[in-house]
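A further point concerns the way the authors explain their paired sequence and structure data. An entry of this sort, consisting of the sequence and the corresponding C-alpha cells, reads as follows:
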Amino acid sequence: MAINKNHEFEDLDGVKCAIVERNASKERVAFLKQLLELNRYKVVVVPSPPPKAVPPPKPLVPAEGETQPQASTPTPMRETFTIGVTNVAFNPTNAIFGRSLRTKDGHVVTLAYWEQKETVSHDEIPYYEQQL
C-alpha cells in the first residue's frame, strides 16, 4: 500500500511494481520505456482498465411542437496503459528532482523533458548552487 499518492505500488502482470504513470498513451509509453530502460530499470507495461461506465443521460421529453434532439454517437475510448518499474524504491518525483535520471546523451532529465515539453534536456544549475 502506498504511503502517499506519489509512491504507489501495484502488481502488474504478476510482478510487484512501483507505478510510474497511469493512463499513458502509446507514444508516452514508448518515450518513458526507452528513458527508464536506458537508466537500467526493468519496465512493465499493461493496458489500463477502462474507466467506470457512466450511464447515458436520460433523453429529455420535448415539448409540443419541438423535435427530438439527435443522439450523439459515443466517442471511442483511446487505449491507455499503466507503466511500472520492478524497482519498488523508484519514485518518479524523487528521480526527477533528485537528478538521478539521464538522457542517452548524458544530460540530467529535467521536469520539462520528462513531461515532453522539451525535446532536449538542458542541464540547469540547481537553485541551491546558483551564485547570487
Remarks:
- The longest strand covers residues 15-24.
